[in-house]
Amino acid sequence: MHIAEGFLPAPHAIGWTVAAAPFVVHGARAVVKEVREHPESTLLLGAAGAFTFVLSAIKLPSVTGSSSHPTGTGAGAVLFRPPVMALLGTVVLLFQALLLAHGGLTTLGANAFAFAVVGPWAGYGAYRLARGLGAGLLPGVFVALALADLATYVTTSLQLALAFPDAASGLAGAAAKFLGVFALTQVPLAVAEGLLGVLLFRVLTVNARPELERLGVLRPATAEETAEETAEEVR
Amino acid sequence: MTGLAVDDAAWASAWRTRSPVDKLVLCAGLVVCALVLPVWPGGVLVALAAVLLALGPARVPARTFGRAVRWPLAFVAVGAVTAVVSVDGGGLGWAPDAAVRAGELVGHSVAGGAAVLLLATTTPMSDLLPAMRRLRVPGAVVEVASVTYRLLFVLLESLHTIREAQTARMGHSSLRRSYRSSGVLAAAVLTRSWDRARRMQEGLAGRGMETGLRVLPEARPSSPAFLAATATGLAALVVLGVLA
């Protein structure tokens, strides 16, 4: 769930827009450079943006019985890296605000900071860490997607807590309230998004191996491995 | 029908042929008024103005407008209640002047949401994106966003078709199967998006695309009368909102 239009007071809306701007501009620079060097990337990047939008329209079968939607930015961060996701995530948020009335325009900065900056970076960081510690692709993808989802909602909760400190217990009380309502309820859904990611990447490693190798998610198979696989197939 | 009710409304709206810049000025003005004016009477007047303009001259179906505000309203209701509940030493209670604060939050959000929805239900994204070039957004970014807009309907249709096929084959009959099917669904949509992009790229390369997707923008001249009415209306809102 994104922060609705008009919900944040003006100074907070402006502050979060300023905070998200450098990341989005950095992402835009990366995209401009990529398109200048490879004009054909325009279509692939557009496809990545459309996939992120559509992924958030998939109904997630939740453990608790109710259905909800994945954020989709964790998968994007693993596939296309966080700087590009900062821009694509913001474009997707703009589309969600204007096509689905989810989120808003004055809250676009705050939502972009949570959804397109913190989520992808947290997910990608967890993915690199897991892979660095020797985890395989699928465990890495699970922590990336689950953490990206959870980090997004923790950030949203903290943004709301900053804007509306508790009358009695101040910022800490407000953080506990909003985390309880918006982040704790998200834990099963974060696990569900992680599971969806594992299933997604399991299918992709079989059906779209060349694309994953091109994106650098999978190491290209060496000649020896290919020979081994061929030998296995022959057997 | 494209599948997204707000987008359908935007294409069918009576204001579709108005200059996107005119509509942007009006809606941005309303959004700012909704955010900074006190809720009573400023915010209420902004909400009324946005709804009346959408349902009146712009001829947006009331049903579309009503359905589109359901989700944001759910967030606003949960968020506003959480904001005005006070936690103190393990006990829960209402913060002082809780009703007033909750009312203000809901008022700002409803007024702002209605103003954004007025823009969304009268202006298709494909009209807004070229207008972003004027705001000095780089051309490459606008192009990527335009491709995203055009592809997402194709992918949404794939999503629904594949899901229907999966459901017909008992793919969503249990939680376990539902997970498996959702994973396959996401993978199918992603590989289709790559395939679409590659085929479009090949088609465009064959037609000599070298530097970018240049299309002729539709000429929609700005209406001085509309802009004057916007300025007068916004000024009246500000005066009423501040003085009352």
Automatic annotation (TrEMBL), chain A:
Its main location: membrane. The gene is cbiM. Signal peptide: none annotated. It is a multi-pass membrane protein. It comes from the Bacteria. Coiled coil: none annotated. It comes from Geodermatophilus amargosae. This is Cobalt transport protein CbiM. GO terms for molecular function: cobalt ion transmembrane transporter activity. Belongs to the CbiM family. The chain crosses the membrane at residues 13-31, 43-60, 80-101, 108-127, 133-153, 186-204. Pathway: Cofactor biosynthesis; adenosylcobalamin biosynthesis. GO terms for biological process: cobalamin biosynthetic process. Keywords: Cell membrane, Cobalamin biosynthesis, Cobalt, Cobalt transport, Ion transport, Membrane, Transmembrane, Transmembrane helix, Transport. PANTHER family: COBALT TRANSPORT PROTEIN CBIM, PTHR43627. It is found in: Cell inner membrane; Cell membrane. GO terms for cellular component: ATP-binding cassette (ABC) transporter complex. Forms an energy-coupling factor (ECF) transporter complex composed of an ATP-binding protein (A component, CbiO), a transmembrane protein (T component, CbiQ) and 2 possible substrate-capture proteins (S components, CbiM and CbiN) of unknown stoichimetry. Part of the energy-coupling factor (ECF) transporter complex CbiMNOQ involved in cobalt import.
From TrEMBL, chain B:
Its main location: membrane. GO terms for biological process: cobalt ion transport. GO terms for cellular component: ATP-binding cassette (ABC) transporter complex. CDD domains: EcfT (cd16914). InterPro entries: ABC/ECF_trnsptr_transmembrane, Cobalt_transport_CbiQ, ECF_CbiQ. It is found in: Cell membrane. The chain crosses the membrane at residues 23-56, 68-85, 105-125, 225-243. It comes from the Bacteria. It is a multi-pass membrane protein. Keywords: Cell membrane, Membrane, Transmembrane, Transmembrane helix. PANTHER family: COBALT TRANSPORT PROTEIN CBIQ. This is Cobalt/nickel transport system permease protein.
